[in-house]
Each structure stands twice: as C-alpha cells, then as structure tokens.
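Researcher: Quick sanity check before group meeting.
Model: Go ahead. Protein one:
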Amino acid sequence: MLKKCLPLLLLCTAPVFAKPVLTVYTYDSFAADWGPGPKIKKAFEADCNCELKLVALEDGVSLLNRLRMEGKNSKADVVLGWITIC
C-alpha cells in the first residue's frame, strides 16, 4: 500500500520545494538582452534563491494600462519604471 501511495505523496509535496517566483512588470528596454535586466536578474536569482520573471511592456502607458486592467488580480509583485518630467 505504501509503495502505491508514495508517488502520490511526492507529487503533492513538489510545490513545497519549488523556488518562489517574483514577477516584475517593467519596460522592454530594461528586460531586453542589451538592457540591464538580464544581468540584474541573474545576480538577484543567485542572491535570493528564487526565480525572477521579467514581464516586458512597451512603455509607461502600456505598463499603467495593464495594471489598471488587471486591478487586484495583477500578477506583478513589483513594478519597475521611471518617469521623465520635462
């Protein structure tokens, strides 16, 4: 009986051992291969032992619209952006 239940038990406990995921909404220029995002992602993941998921959006308007549409159901843990005031 135990041999039959063990695989099921292991399957149920798998999410406990999974790395936490931190979702960051940001600009595409930050997350691009040539931007600072990939290097920061690598260093952050090594430091916090988690997965950093960068969600790249075109610009500030797209970022804001996505947050407004998702509301309280947003998957973002962090929103990274900047505003230039002239």
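Researcher: Fine. The other one?
Model: Protein two, sequence then structure:
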Amino acid sequence: MSIEPPHEDDSAVRSAPYTLEQTLSGVVMGLIVLISFGNVLARYFTSQSFAATEEFSIALLIVLSFVGSSAAFAFDRHIRVSFFADKLPPAGRAALEWLSFAVTASLFAFIAFHAGVLTWDQYRFEETSPALGVPQWWYTVWMPVLAVALVLRLILTRVRGRA
C-alpha cells in the first residue's frame, strides 16, 4: 500500500486553483472553527455555553463529510487497501476498480434515497430541533442533496477515467 496518489500531476487535471469541493470544505471548516471557538470563549467568560452551537456544528460536520468525500474521489485520494489489488493482473485491477465504483455509487445512492425519506418525514411531521426549535429538515436536507452530488461526482470521475 502506497501513500502517494496515483496521479502525481494534479495541475494538469485542475483548471482552477481550487475545486468547488475544496472551497466548500474550507468554508465549512472555517465555520466550524469559528462556532466552536465562540462557544469556548462564551464558556470561559460566562460559565455558560451556547446551546445551539452543537446543532450547527453537527450539521456542518455532516456537510463536511460529504464534501470532503467528493473531493477525495475527484482526486483519487480516497482511502483504500490495495494489498490484494496490487497482486492482480491489470485486467483484474480494472475490474476491481469498477466494482469499487459500483459499490460506492450504490451506497451513496442508498444514502440519498433514505436521507430524502428522512428529510421528507421531518418536513411532513414538522419536527423541530431541540435547542433552537427550527425545522429539523433544515439540517437534514443537505444529506440527500450532497449524496446525489457525490454520486454525480463519482460518475464524472469514472467517465473521465481518473478513478
């Protein structure tokens, strides 16, 4: 198993300095840091924390997970154990890559469907969040949207032949 990405020259692949996934990851990480740091300061100076910060942080961590996964797949830097795949002939490795693509795309399509059902149920039954009392679907609507975006990114990456 190597730690080097298979495509060393990413500059030929990228036309812009940062992709949408990379930009969103940075923005979301920055928001999480600001929210967490603000909560730490509030606790330090007032001995009380902001109850709503956990809701926002969890929602942003979910967004970050999907966006980060998309970036990892886009640049072929996702985690893999290639011990057995490296022992296969090139045709076997190619078949294994297609199997990996199919399983991953199916998993995220499954997540998109069921997260969509969850979001719809939360909307329909007017569930509210515990701390702020805002509609719960405001937080979960991003799961199906980003899961579908991730499946599209996987397909695009597979069609371009980079994964």
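Researcher: One line on it for the slide.
Model: DSSP finds five helices and no strands in the chain.
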